[in-house]
Structure to design on (290 residues):
């Protein structure tokens, strides 16, 4: 039997049909919202309202037959009914801007996935990464965690880094400072409750960092990260475009932005299947921001 080291660009017809149906279902219940908004008068007024964070409905609801998991007790103190992470472990300076490339030297590239964990798309990405023994970083949304606790644990068990992508995915520069703090704290608390330690990496929704969010990030002992290769998979669900963007833009120290949640990401999954082995053949090592 002839062996082709690269997978076929397409998937078997039956598999593709199943993935397409799953993707359509997930898209219906989790529409995209990735274009940053600019503050107007109404937006500024809302940002300064100082109201506590509401418990928003999850962007990713449990799949059929998957009961919503209860959040159990953890080794944390509580204040005002909210779990609090144990005291600081290391100082982190407040940065003027997030990192856009890796700090490591050598022919390294980081694959990052935002907006999960997702019940079906994240596991599909994990299977591809496991097949190639590659490590990635998942910036998770806190409100998705209770419905996908097993997926989050699988991410960590496979050796991938877990980062903070806020609790409800608001644009941080358009909300009040107290809510900025709560968005980042709450996500870190949920990650710590499931994995035993809070995240040490963070990415602002839409990449919209500002002074208060960078300060909150440092206070929570997290390093802020951006990207320098944007697959635009939230806007352009074209597999070939994603592949070309990654392979054409790859360079030592690059951080690639893609998504495993927040909408239909099956083009992202198929593109990863195609470009990952080619990156490895070009001599790249998959690294995690640190």
């Amino acid at each position: 039997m002839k062996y082709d080291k690269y997978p076929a660009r397409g998937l078997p017809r039956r598999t593709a049909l199943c993935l397409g149906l799953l993707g359509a279902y997930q898209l219906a219940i989790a529409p995209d919202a990735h274009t940053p908004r600019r503050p107007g008068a109404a937006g500024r007024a809302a940002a300064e309202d100082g109201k506590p964070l509401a418990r928003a409905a999850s962007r990713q609801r449990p799949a059929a037959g998957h009961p919503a998991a209860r959040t159990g007790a953890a080794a944390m103190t509580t204040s005002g009914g909210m779990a609090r992470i144990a005291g600081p472990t290391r100082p982190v300076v407040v940065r003027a801007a997030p990192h856009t490339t890796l700090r490591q030297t050598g022919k390294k590239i980081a694959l990052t996935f935002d907006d999960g964990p997702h019940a079906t798309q994240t596991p599909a990405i994990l299977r591809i990464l496991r097949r190639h023994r590659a490590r990635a970083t998942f910036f998770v949304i806190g409100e998705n965690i209770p419905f996908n606790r097993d997926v989050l644990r699988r991410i960590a068990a496979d050796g991938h880094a877990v980062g903070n992508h806020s609790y409800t995915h608001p644009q941080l520069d358009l909300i009040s400072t107290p809510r900025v703090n709560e968005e980042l704290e709450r996500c870190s608390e949920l990650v710590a409750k499931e994995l035993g330690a809070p995240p040490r990496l963070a990415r602002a929704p839409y990449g919209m960092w500002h002074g208060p969010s960078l300060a909150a990030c440092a206070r929570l002992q997290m390093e802020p990260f951006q990207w320098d290769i944007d697959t635009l998979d939230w806007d352009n669900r074209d597999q070939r475009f994603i592949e070309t963007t990654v392979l054409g833009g790859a360079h030592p120290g690059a951080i690639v932005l893609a998504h495993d949640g927040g909408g239909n990401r099956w083009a992202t999954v198929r593109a990863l299947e195609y470009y990952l082995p080619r990156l490895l053949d070009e001599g790249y090592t998959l690294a995690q921001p640190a």
Observations:
- The two ends are 43 Å apart (CA to CA).
- The CA atoms of residues 85 and 152 lie 18 Å apart.
- The first strand starts at residue 77 and ends at 79.
- Strands lie at 77-79, 82-84, 108-116, 137-140, 161-164, 201-202, 223-224, 229-230, 254-259, 285-286.
